[in-house]
Amino acid sequence: xxxMLDILAIMRRLPHRYxxxxxDRILTMVxxxxxxxxxxxxxxxxxxxxxxxxQPVMPGVLIVExxxxxxxxxxxxxxxxxxxxxxxxxxxxxxxRFRRPVVPGDQLIIEARVLKMRSKVAKMxxxxxxxxxxxxxxxxMASFGESADSA
Length: 151
Hints:
The chain is an alpha+beta fold. The protein has helices at 7-13, 60-78; strands spanning 25-30, 34-40, 86-98, 107-117, 121-130, 133-147. Helix content is 17%, strand content 41%. Strands 1-2-4-5-6-3 form a six-stranded antiparallel sheet, with helices on one face. The termini are far apart.
């Protein structure tokens, strides 16, 4: 069954906070399979002050981080309640490609799907789109740490 999550539900699943929480809403999620998240890109983002003042462009590394955060929510939900609270560490990326700039006013749609899910490691394929146009893609890997409760 597909699930939708608001920002408060995302914050219960990820340790990230402003200004580094880069997803605003989960539009759909099927645990163990896929997720679609939303990031509203606004001129208020702190990185636009320096990247670049005369022509603001969202840094590519932050687009990849947004994909990783969406993948983190998916991995968190895919592992089940017994693993709730386990921190997820971004550990690698392959086949990263940027296709076009993301600018203020864009609505970034982030998709991730599970390629492999093991007890300690997950691998996902991520894509970012604006108005159905591919802006970035990558394969992402993460490892699972201990839950905050068991530390």
